[in-house]
Amino acid sequence: MGANAPVIPMTLPGILLLCISALSPLPPPDAPPDQEASGYSALERSGITMHYAPGDSLRAERLLNLLVNAPDLPGLPPGLPSTATVYLAASEADFLGFAGGRVPEWSAGLAIPSTGTIVLPMYADDRTRGWSEERVARHEWAHLGLHEYLRGLRVPRWFSEGYAEWASGGWNAAEGWRLRIAMAGGRTPPLDSLALVWPSDRASAEIAYMLSATVVEYLVASSGERGLALFLSRWREGNSFEAALRRTFGVTSGQLEGDWGRYVRRRYGWLLVLSQSLVFWAFLGTLLAVMVVMRRRRGRWRMARLRATELPNDPAFWLDPPRDRKDLGTHGKEANQPPGGPQPGEKP
């Protein structure tokens, strides 16, 4: 979707579907990677096959252990995903080849649920900036688990991304300061009727990730993980997202939009911007620094005034040489005589 793409008004599911669709675009549902892993070695364990390039054996072993020992995904039965094929791409060309299509330059990983495939970049690039390999691997792992459980069903992209971000442990509410700033500054779309264009930059995509994660966070906050598991089970049995949503949470998509909007505004509004975010601490630190500087200046000014009004340590009269008593007596006597010599009646 280009810069002149039409603006589409939507409600919550459609809005986030459009917004999140650009986060990690998938190839066609049944498309395998475009290239074979030629020149790559492989590790296999517990249904996971890890393909890696020479020089990445230690990283491959670490990521394989991470996935093999990963805890059960919340809301899903144990053991999901049951199988996975992971490609650790050593170059951008290999990454795009394994992905089977064009991927945004900021995408740090890719999951292809239809084939149980995960593609992770192992090279230094803007694509991997700010993300750890472990965090991205857990995120894509959650994608595979969710889609394997709901196999054959159409999963809204906003829910898929939100679940993966929340279930993998990647979503940390303390990191939501940018979402708070965006919402407080009015830079996120309205929640009742939104018009979004395709996110094309990294910052917009990250905000979309946060928004999608807060929907799942809200569902879990209102009913616990047990409610999430019941919702997914009813969705799988009835093949209907809307029916499962009404049966489990008693709301429609439109009502969920309103409830979620109030939750997000309350949890990530101005109050938390001022009390918990980095903005507050940065402001407080700056204020304290200014107060310290002003206090020091005031102290120097008061000290200068005191020094200006106190007596000097060595007055000038303390520096005159002392006179002995004989000199003082003679001098006094002579000083008391009037001019012209002795007076009458006095002995010369």
Topology at a glance:
Blueprint: E1 8-10, H1 12-20, E2 41-45, E3 48-52, H2 57-68, E4 84-89, H3 92-99, E5 110-112, E6 117-121, H4 133-149, H5 157-167, H6 177-184, E7 194-196, H7 202-238, H8 241-249, H9 253-267, H10 270-275, H11 278-309, H12 325-336
Question: How would you characterize the overall build of this protein?
Answer:
The protein is α/β, with parallel strands linked by helices. Helices cover 51% and strands 9% of the residues. The chain contains twelve helices and seven strands. It has helices at 12-20, 57-68, 92-99, 133-149, 157-167, 177-184, 202-238, 241-249, 253-267, 270-275, 278-309, 325-336; strands at residues 8-10, 41-45, 48-52, 84-89, 110-112, 117-121, 194-196. The strands form two sheets. The chain has a five-stranded mixed beta sheet. It has a two-stranded antiparallel ribbon with strand order 1-7. Helix 7 (202-238) packs across helix 8 (241-249). It is flat. The protein starts with 7 loop residues before the first strand and ends in a 12-residue tail after the last helix. The model is unreliable at 1-31 and 189-198 (pLDDT under 50).
Quick structural summary:
With 348 residues, the protein is of the alpha/beta class. β2 (41-45) and β3 (48-52) form a beta hairpin. It is built from 12 helices and 7 strands.
Count of DSSP H/I helices:
12
SSE string, helices as H and strands as E:
EHEEHEHEEHHHEHHHHHH
DSSP strand tally: 7
Structural class: alpha/beta
Mean pLDDT: 76
Shape: flat
The protein's oligomeric status is single chain
End-to-end Cα distance, whole Å, is 128 Å
Major β-sheet annotation = 5 strands, mixed
| Beta-strand residue fraction | 5-15%
Major sheet strand order? 2-3-4-6-5
Low-confidence stretches: 1-31, 189-198
- Estimated radius of gyration: 39 Å
